[in-house]
């Protein structure tokens, strides 16, 4: 039942937040298999399950498998929701991260830029998700030792977070 699958997915998120990644992976796989069976492979909830599994695979360092799942989520969301939907842009951002971890820097930068530009257009320049994309691109540049570009973006993200979320918010503090 879809409500049961939501509970499985919620449990997976709790396990993930506790750092119990293997158990979270198991629950995410269960939620995905059930969603595919009950809702179909292209249903938005199924694609969310694909995305959630990709994230937990990435946390475990299973980057190749995470990339495959991120690509599946992205392709499905582009088809079902459109290229500029916020969930699609989350998939773009997630794919950028896993590409970067694998040393696929050119593709990672392209995905980071796509996520940022898409979020600016769809959500506005001050939306927290847009600011997260600014931060992600800054962090990517920082890892590449492109410090000048990183600094400009870090400043933009930091000042935006301060205005939108406040000085004490965890995202602001991290940035």
From TrEMBL:
GO process annotations (BP): microtubule-based movement
Pfam families per UniProt: TPR_10 (PF13374), TPR_12 (PF13424)
Keywords: Cytoplasm, Repeat, TPR repeat
GO terms for cellular component: cytoplasm; kinesin complex
Gene Ontology terms for molecular function: kinesin binding
Major location (coarse): cytoplasm
Source superkingdom: Eukaryota
Compartment list: Cytoplasm
Name of the protein in its database record: TPR-like protein
Species the sequence originates in: Melanomma pulvis-pyrius CBS 109.77
């Amino acid at each position: 039942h879809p409500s049961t699958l939501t509970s499985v997915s919620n449990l997976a998120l709790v396990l993930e937040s506790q750092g119990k990644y293997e158990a979270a992976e198991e629950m995410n796989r269960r939620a995905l298999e059930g969603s595919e069976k009950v809702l179909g492979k292209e249903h938005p909830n199924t694609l969310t399950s694909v995305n959630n599994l990709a994230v937990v695979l990435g946390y475990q360092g299973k980057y190749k498998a995470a990339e495959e799942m991120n690509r599946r989520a992205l392709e499905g969301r582009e088809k079902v929701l459109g290229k500029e939907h916020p969930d699609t842009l989350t998939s773009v951002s997630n794919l950028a991260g896993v590409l970067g971890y694998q040393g696929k820097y050119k593709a990672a930068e392209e995905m980071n830029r796509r996520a940022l530009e898409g979020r600016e257009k769809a959500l506005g320049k001050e939306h927290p998700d847009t600011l997260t994309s600014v931060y992600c691109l800054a962090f990517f540049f920082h890892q590449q030792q492109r410090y000048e570009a990183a600094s400009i973006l870090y400043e933009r993200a930091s000042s935006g977070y301060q205005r939108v979320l406040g000085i004490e918010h965890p995202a602001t503090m991290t940035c």
